[in-house]
Every structure is written in structure tokens, then in C-alpha cells.
Design a protein that fits this description.
The structure is a single chain. This protein has helices at residues 20-53, 74-81, 85-115, 121-133, 136-146, 153-161, 177-202, 206-214, 219-247, 251-256, 268-278, 282-307. By secondary structure, it is an all-alpha fold. It has a domain at 82-280: MetI-like fold.
């Protein structure tokens, strides 16, 4: 007698389910995917194309055709070996660092004034935001006329008050022009700093100031012990954005001085424009653009690294 035994049916394996944390991460990735794709298309691809063009000696008309020339470092050698390269670095340093610092000081002072909520603060807020609402080219035109050494309002007031005996060549003197352009650019940028600093001031609990006053701390002590620590995170973000904006600013210099006089206001960003569109050399302009990008990224990363441990937002 033969006994047959039926084998038990195989139990289908259940697919392992994602944990809650894994599902949350997957959802975040899916939500960020459109932004990642936009960044890749609008940022990564142009930067890659810029780097590619910088290794070829091209004319502007050749950009519309496939590149068949051999790659070379001639553009970088010409850019760094040009006698105006180091002066451009110096002009860029003044324009970026002094302009950002000036906008920060004016913005912080204005924010402290607005935070007092004095009578007429609403009108002051409107006046503060007004430079931000003006197009950069229009703002540069306004300052170009104000600083004109023949009919400018600034020279008229200086002469009328007796502070100077002859008109000051704000935009035609190589020693003064870069400072005049930097100040005009800081005037255009300081409303952003004011808004950011005011938001930071309003986020600091008022109870901290009350406790400090009860301990006998004066205004200077309260500012150093409470206000500045409370603004560290806001300062970090604001200065970071201000540096990036200053590095890519080209319209202020082009409108006010065109890079002159004697190339004293020719920043790296302006040189990129002139090499590409005036001298019709996109390869050399791209090389300067890559160098400008390296300087800007290195500067901002150094700033973020230096302030990373003290930021609280």
C-alpha cells in the first residue's frame, strides 16, 4: 500500500513594508524633485556649459554651431595674465566687502530705529523700502546724476555748505569712483538688510531686555549681550545673500561708470560682460566667469564655515 502525502502549499512572502521614517524621506524626496530638476536645468547645466566654453577659443557667432576646436587653457592664461586682472580683483573686493558691510551697518541702524516704534514709523518704513522698489539700472542713473561733478546735487550741497572749494569728481576720478559706486550700490541694497534685521529684532523675546534692565545693564550692554546674539542667525543668512548679490552685480558699474575711469571700477563681473559682448570673445569671458564663480563660492563658503558654530537658526 502506497501512502501519498500532499506537500503544504507555499506561503507567499509578504513584501517588506517601508518604515515610517523611510516613507517620510521618500515623500520629501518626491516633493523636492521638481525643485531639484529646476536647479539642474537652470543652474547646473548653464554652469557646465560655461566651464565647457571656457576651454575653447571661440567667437560669439560660433556659439550657435557645434564646437569642433581642440580645448585649450589659453583663455585662462589670457585672463589671469592680463594687466587689468589684479586691479579687477581689488575693485571686486572693495565693491563686494565694503558694499555689503556698509549696507549691513545702515540696515541694522535703520532696523533698530524702526524697532523703537516711534511716531511716524510707518512713514519711515515706506521711505526705507522705496530704494528696493527702484530698478537697479534706474537707481544707478539717479546716483549718476546726483554725483555728477558739473550739475549734481551732491556737489551743489557740498559747495553751498563750504565743505569743499571745488566740485568733487566722484565718477571721473580713479581714486574716488569705486567708492562712489560702492556707496550707491549699498544704498540700493540696504532695505533688504533692514527688513531682515527688523525680523530678527522682533523675534527676540522682550522679557530678556526686561531682565537685563532689572540687573542694571545699559543700552550698550543689552545690545552686545542680547541683541547681537539674537541676530546671529539672521546676520549669517543676510550677509551670505548680500555677498552673492554683490558678486553678480554688473548693472550698477556699467550704468554709472562703464568700468572707468582707467578701469578703476572694472570688477570681475564687468570684465566678463566686456570680454563677451564688447570684444566678442565668449571663451575668454567664460574663463573670467569661471574664475569669478570660484572666488564667489570660496568667499561665501569661507564665511559660512567661519560662522557655522555661532548660528542659531
Amino acid at each position: 500500500m502506497v501512502t501519498l502525502s500532499a506537500e503544504p502549499a507555499a506561503i507567499p512572502r509578504r513584501r517588506p513594508r517601508l518604515g515610517r521614517q523611510a516613507r517620510t524621506r521618500l515623500l520629501l524626496i518626491l516633493l523636492m524633485l521638481p525643485a531639484i530638476l529646476c536647479t539642474a536645468v537652470l543652474v547646473a547645466w548653464p554652469i557646465g556649459k560655461l566651464i565647457q566654453i571656457s576651454f575653447y577659443e571661440l567667437r560669439l557667432a560660433e556659439l550657435m554651431r557645434p564646437i569642433v576646436k581642440p580645448w585649450t587653457l589659453a583663455n585662462y592664461e589670457a585672463a589671469t595674465g592680463h594687466p587689468g586682472f589684479l586691479p579687477s580683483l581689488m575693485a571686486t573686493a572693495i565693491f563686494v566687502f565694503v558694499g555689503t558691510a556698509l549696507a549691513l551697518v545702515i540696515g541694522l541702524a535703520t532696523a533698530l530705529l524702526l524697532d523703537l516704534k516711534l511716531t511716524g514709523s510707518s512713514l519711515v518704513e515706506i521711505l526705507v523700502v522705496s530704494p528696493w522698489s527702484v530698478a537697479p539700472a534706474i537707481a544707478s542713473l539717479i546716483w549718476m546724476f546726483l554725483l555728477n561733478d558739473q550739475f549734481g546735487l551732491v556737489n551743489y550741497l557740498l559747495l553751498a555748505s563750504g565743505l569743499v572749494s571745488s566740485p568733487v569728481a566722484f565718477l571721473t576720478s580713479p581714486d574716488v569712483a569705486i567708492w562712489a559706486v560702492t556707496f550707491a550700490t549699498a544704498w540700493k541694497a540696504y532695505p533688504f538688510f533692514t527688513i531682515m534685521m527688523l525680523a530678527g529684532l522682533q523675534s527676540i523675546p522682550h522679557s530678556q531686555y526686561e531682565a537685563a534692565m532689572m540687573d542694571g545693564a545699559g543700552r550698550a550692554r543689552r545690545f552686545l549681550a542680547i541683541t547681537l546674539p539674537g541676530l546671529r542667525g539672521f546676520l549669517r543668512v543676510t550677509v551670505f545673500l548680500g555677498l552673492l548679490s554683490a558678486f553678480r552685480n554688473v548693472e550698477s558699474v556699467l550704468v554709472m561708470t562703464g568700468g572707468g575711469p582707467a578701469r578703476s571700477t572694472e570688477t570681475l563681473a564687468v570684465r566678463v560682460y566686456t570680454e563677451t559682448f564688447q570684444f566678442l570673445s565668449p571663451g575668454r569671458g567664460a574663463a573670467l566667469g569661471v574664475l569669478t564663480l570660484i572666488v564667489a563660492v570660496a568667499t561665501t563658503l569661507a564665511f559660512l564655515y567661519a560662522t557655522r558654530k555661532r548660528a542659531d537658526i
